[in-house]
From TrEMBL:
Sigma factors are initiation factors that promote the attachment of RNA polymerase to specific initiation sites and are then released. InterPro entries: RNA_pol_sigma_54, RNA_pol_sigma_54_core-bd, RNA_pol_sigma_54_DNA-bd, RpoN_core-bd_sf. Residues 270-429 form the RNA polymerase sigma factor 54 DNA-binding domain. Residues 76-258 form the RNA polymerase sigma factor 54 core-binding domain. The keyword DNA-binding applies. Pfam families: Sigma54_AID, Sigma54_CBD, Sigma54_DBD. Keywords: DNA-binding, DNA-directed RNA polymerase, Nucleotidyltransferase, Sigma factor, Transcription, Transcription regulation, Transferase. Belongs to the sigma-54 factor family. The keyword Metal-binding does not apply. This is RNA polymerase sigma-54 factor. Coiled coil: none annotated.
Length: 435
């Protein structure tokens, strides 16, 4: 065998320490940013930081990514009111001794819905945590082993499957049923029995076992009231258009000062020079954070003006990739910039992510309706029904079709579940009880 030596030139992007720090600053909340800068100011004589009064009493890390490694997120929560977040953080502290993986796990915890399901896909969490999707998937697999079983599920079927595995009752037949829950909702028991190579009675027995599982394990925990924080941004009507501005009163003020006199001490002069350089870099990084956040918010408000004018039913399909393309940024940068950011609007203070919405029909672009708009439509139709004669899912689908939107009955059922609206039978029973 002949050995050969060759040269090859490649290009790649290496994440420097300053780039990593800038990304961390970008995704910090105002609370965490204030804590981070205040800690820097203690060690840097060239940096002055003024923390807003509204943020001084708020523990860092509760509402965001956490600025310091010494912060105990569990200890900051009310001990007399256990919450899902408290419960999960305690398990994370035991299961993830590696600080890097623990931060990824905490990012997943921040994405938990009150039901215990994940409110964001793993891809979005990976982007927010700044790790490859393979790392995020590995962390999620470990999180899905937490107690009670069913936490961190990606949906109803996933939640029930995790609980069935935990109880050692997940057979092939049960797995097939969980993969086809839509057929159960449609009453197609015979067709489902054929898929399972069983009888309709076998399917009914399996469904009885499934009904013994908890579809929303997170609701067993008390809901902890989040700290009330001032919004990061405001949108106001100005000269007939929507204008966005940063809420500077909720942001720490950074000032770079002159280095102290060091005389002829070379070591002290070197230290002072580095301190001033560090302070100048921090000031620029903070300003870039603010400008990126403002640019993303302006883009979102401009493209979702109909939402501000007419409500959730008029949200257009819009993703982080669309905003990133317009701003000339990476999608992960946009995701970091808008995460945990609140914006004050005439419709109330809402998360900035409210302005994002997936298309109902993939690939339809901005021309088609968004999922959030159709979810709001289902809510509006139910709100207008006669309580004593609630509409069935099929009737809601017919109403939606009359409004120009074709929804399948199972889609209506899914959206109704997202809104927390009971079935027509349960609504009828509730109306009788209230009468």
């Amino acid at each position: 065998m002949e050995m050969m030596v060759s040269q090859r030139q490649t290009q790649g992007l290496a994440m420097t320490a300053k780039m990593q720090a800038a990304l961390r600053i970008l995704q910090m909340t105002a609370v965490d940013l204030s804590a981070y800068l205040a800690e820097e100011a203690l060690e840097n004589p060239c940096l002055e930081v003024s923390v807003p009064q509204a943020l001084r009493a708020v523990p860092t890390g509760v509402a965001g990514s956490g600025a310091g490694s010494d912060f105990d997120a569990v200890a900051a929560l009310a001990s007399d009111k256990p919450s899902l977040y408290d419960h999960v953080l305690r398990q994370i502290a035991l299961a993830f001794p590696d600080p890097r993986l623990a931060r990824v796990a905490e990012t997943f915890a921040e994405a938990l819905e009150p039901t215990g399901w994940l409110g964001s896909p793993p891809e979005a969490v990976a982007a927010a945590a700044g790790v490859p999707i393979s790392v995020a998937e590995a962390v999620l697999a470990r999180l899905q082993q937490f107690e009670p079983a069913g936490l961190f599920a990606r949906g109803l079927a996933d939640c029930l499957r995790l609980q069935a595995e935990d109880r050692d009752m997940l057979t092939w037949e049960l797995s097939v049923i969980l993969d086809n829950l839509g057929m159960v909702a449609e009453g197609r028991i015979d067709a489902l029995a054929e898929l399972c190579d069983g009888t309709p009675q076998d399917v009914r027995n399996a469904l009885r076992a499934i009904r013994g599982l908890d579809p929303k394990p997170g609701l067993a925990f008390a809901a902890t009231e989040p700290p009330i924080l001032p919004p990061d941004l405001r949108v106001i009507r100005k000269d007939g258009t929507w204008a966005v501005e940063l809420n500077r009163s909720a942001l720490p003020a950074v000032k770079v000062t002159e280095a102290p006199e060091t005389g002829r001490d070379t070591a002290a002069r070197t230290y002072a020079t580095r301190a001033r350089s560090r302070a100048q870099w921090l000031a620029r990084a903070v300003e870039r954070r603010h400008s990126t956040l403002l640019a993303a918010a302006v883009c979102l408000v401009r493209r979702q003006g109909d939402y501000l004018d007419r409500g959730p039913r008029h949200l257009h399909p819009l993703g982080t990739e669309d905003v990133a393309e317009e701003l000339g940024l990476h999608a992960s940068t946009v995701s970091r910039a808008v995460q945990h950011r609140m914006i004050e609007t005439p419709r109330g203070t809402v998360p900035l992510r409210t302005f994002f919405s997936r298309a109902f029909t993939p690939g339809s672009g901005e021309d088609g309706p968004s999922q959030d708009a159709l979810i709001a439509l289902v809510g509006d139709i139910v709100a207008k029904e006669t309580p004593a004669r609630p509409l069935s899912d099929a009737a809601i689908a017919a109403e939606a079709k009359a409004a120009g939107f074709a929804l399948a009955r199972r889609t209506v059922a899914k959206y109704r579940d997202v809104l927390g609206i009971p079935s027509s039978y349960d609504r009828r029973q509730n109306a009788r009880i209230s009468a």
